[in-house]
Design goal:
Elements (H helix, E strand, L loop, with lengths): L2 H14 L5 H16 L3 E10 L2 E11 L2 E4 L18 H9 L3 E4 L5 E9 L2 E10 L5 H25 L9 H16 L9 H4 L5 E9 L2 H8 L1 H18 L5 E6 L2 E9 L1 H17 L10 E7 L6 H17 L5 E3 H6 L16
Parallel strand pairs: 10-11
Antiparallel strand pairs: 1-2, 1-6, 2-3, 4-5, 5-6, 7-9, 7-10, 8-9
């Protein structure tokens, strides 16, 4: 790698580390590798959790005819792959976090580079190259990828709850702003929702999940067991919801779930399955733990505080009427069980 290429790489890494959006970081990394290596094929895979399983999602793909970028909301579950579905050399890269290469018989090579830092593996870089990478070039490339992985670690630390590993409130605010922008202009095809929204009667939904009598758990068993309940609840959330649904811990015993576009019955079913799963589980030392859930439809023209307020009204009703229940805000209003809240729009906030 000549001096100019090294300078170019450092310049691009400096630009990349100014980004605080992982999807944009992945795009910039793909463009950097494309410029330096001119691969026949490049794919940046991200490790995701889908219904309790660890899978790989193709986020950036570069081929001779062009390149594509995906958001998690755009992907369908069949596009995800289990590491075990790959040939053995993929498994070696995933499990051992080793760089793996194979020649293609025409002077080129295929190479897998693990993408991970202190938190473990977060993805893979797949390269199909017209010619083999030189040893010195590979060493420099690996260090550059290490810098990118370290930056991704910093992003993860800033965007996720320390205890549970779920996204935090700050991440919710940024994501929800993007979601509301899409609801204001769904035909734009932006923000990764257009394909899902084409399904009949589909919409986004927000649910607030609150652990019942959590103070009793902390007071009766101690905060160590309380923390374990939170950790196990987060694990059950990952198992219950799709990779494209967003999971947040808002603090204390309260969690928020944003469902990407689906119909009303599916939204109710997935929240009810989670409630039943919690009800039927046995937690170490603590025993039975239940949750109350309130959820609402996300509509165009509303605000984050407005949607959270509606879900919170439904949650308040669930907790005030026996707990361990699921209630939908719109149904409660229709049945006259609660009065409709005054809608808070984005404009009202200003």
């Amino acid at each position: 790698m000549d001096q100019f290429s090294v300078y170019f790489m450092l310049q691009q890494i400096a630009t990349l580390t100014e980004e605080n959006d992982r999807e944009q970081v992945e795009v910039l990394l793909g463009r950097l590798l494309q410029a330096l290596l001119n691969p026949h094929h490049l794919c940046i895979w991200r490790q995701v959790y889908h219904m309790g399983e660890t899978k790989l999602a193709p986020m950036v793909m570069i081929q001779p005819h062009g390149w594509t970028q995906q958001r998690l909301e755009e992907l369908e579950s069949p596009q995800l792959v289990l590491p075990g579905q790959f040939p053995d050399w993929y498994g070696l890269a995933v499990e051992e976090r080793q760089t793996v290469e194979r020649t293609d018989g025409n002077g080129g090579e295929q190479r897998l580079l693990p993408l991970g830092g202190k938190h473990g593996l977060s993805g893979l870089i797949e390269l199909h190259l017209p010619q083999a990478i030189q040893v010195e070039q590979l060493a420099l490339l690996q260090q550059a990828i290490r810098l990118v992985a370290n930056h991704m670690d910093l992003l993860d630390d800033a965007q996720h709850d320390t205890l549970t590993g779920l996204c935090n409130r700050k991440t919710f605010d940024r994501y929800f702003t993007r979601l509301l922008q899409w609801h204001a202009n769904p035909d734009s095809g932006e923000h990764g929702y257009r394909r899902r929204q084409l399904r009949p009667d589909s919409s986004s939904w927000l649910g607030i999940i609150d652990i019942d009598h959590f103070k009793r758990i902390n007071d009766g068993f101690g905060h160590l067991y309380g923390d374990e309940v939170l950790l196990l609840t987060a694990r059950r959330l990952r198992k219950a919801f799709r990779f494209c649904d967003r999971l947040y811990r808002f603090g204390g015993e309260e969690f928020v779930v944003v469902l990407t576009p689906t119909d009303a019955k599916s939204a109710q079913d997935v929240f009810e399955r989670f409630r039943c799963d919690m009800q039927d589980a046995l937690f170490p030392q603590v025993g039975k733990v239940t949750v109350s859930i309130g959820y609402t439809q996300i509509r165009a023209g509303t605000s984050a505080s407005g949607v959270l307020g509606e879900a919170d009204e439904a949650l308040y009703y669930a907790k005030g009427n026996g707990r361990n229940q699921l209630w939908n805000y719109e149904k409660l209003v229709t049945e006259g069980k609660i009065q409709p809240k005054e809608t808070v729009t984005q404009i009202d906030l200003y």
